[in-house]
Amino acid sequence: MTRLSSLVLCATMFAGLLACSSSGTSAQSAIDLAPIDHTVSGWTVDRDMNMNENALPMVAGTAREAEALIDGGAAPFYKAPFAPVQFLWQNYINDTLTSAPDGGYVVLYILQMPSADQASGLYTALLQESEYYSKQGTPDDWKPTSPPLGAESRIEDTGTAWWINFHQDVFYVEVMLSPSYGPPPDYTIGDPDLKQEAFRFAQTIASKI
User: Fold this and answer.
1) Domain extent at residue 57
2) What is the pTM of this model?
3) Rg (the chain; Cα; Å)
4) In the prediction, which pLDDT does 49 show?
5) Per the structure, how many domains does the chain have?
6) What does the alpha-carbon distance between residue 123 and residue 133 come to, in Å, rounded to a whole number?
7) Full DSSP string of the chain
8) 6 in any annotated domain
9) What is the pLDDT of residues 122-174, one digit of tens each?
10) Domain for residue 126, yes or no?
């Protein structure tokens, strides 16, 4: 199942939310970084995609919990030697985007790793995974963001969304912005306004690390 279609919510998210804590290498946790309503202007938590009445992020503390949350899509994040301390997933919606008259959507993943080296290593290693090996053809479709985000950052137009990955300190972050949960023709490849909006969302998170 693709990232955008991984909509299965898991009852263990509540246990994971209570169990997870900071790795000790940072004063923050992944939960501290997840935007709430209007932290990024125009964007609110998509409550239709979140069973928590307080719209809290869905959080996992183990590989099994993360796999349950995103229906098997978490395996690349937990391949040895990588061992995330905390995996966070949240969905957002914005119905004010002129480039997306039916509403824009963001899928956010934040992983808190045991060390900055693991965050950097995961960022690099994921390019070997088929899902990151480019929706358009090759890894060369990934480009550095301009300006940079965090320690390293990249962006790709997948053909259905703008996808940004970056890492900073012990955190690895993914922001995927689409004008709908469905495929084209809703999506216009190369739309600069949606690209900028994806960057603005990611930049808000990076500025908090």
Assistant:
1) 12-206
2) 0.84
3) 16
4) 84
5) 1
6) 13
7) --STT-----THHHHHHHH----SSSS--HHHHS--TTTSTT-EE-GGG---TT-PPEEESSHHHHHHHTTTTTGGGGSTT---SEEEEEEEEES--TT-TT-EEEEEEEEE-SSHHHHHHHHHHGGGSGGGS-SSSSGGG-EE-SS--SSEEEEEE-SS-EEEEEEETTEEEEEEEESSSS-TTS--TT-HHHHHHHHHHHHHHHTT-
8) no
9) 999 999 998 887 555 555 589 999 999 999 999 999 888 999 999 999 999 99
10) yes
Amino acid at 61: G
- Percent of the chain topping pLDDT 90: 61
Q: Is residue 2 part of a domain?
A: no
**Is the bond preceding 76 in cis, omega lying within 30 degrees of 0?**
no
Cβ atoms 166, 153 nearer than 8 A:
yes
Does residue 174 fall inside a structural domain? yes
Structure tokens at 13: 């998210």
How high is the pLDDT of residue 100?
81
Q: How far apart are CA 163 and CA 201, in angstroms?
A: 11
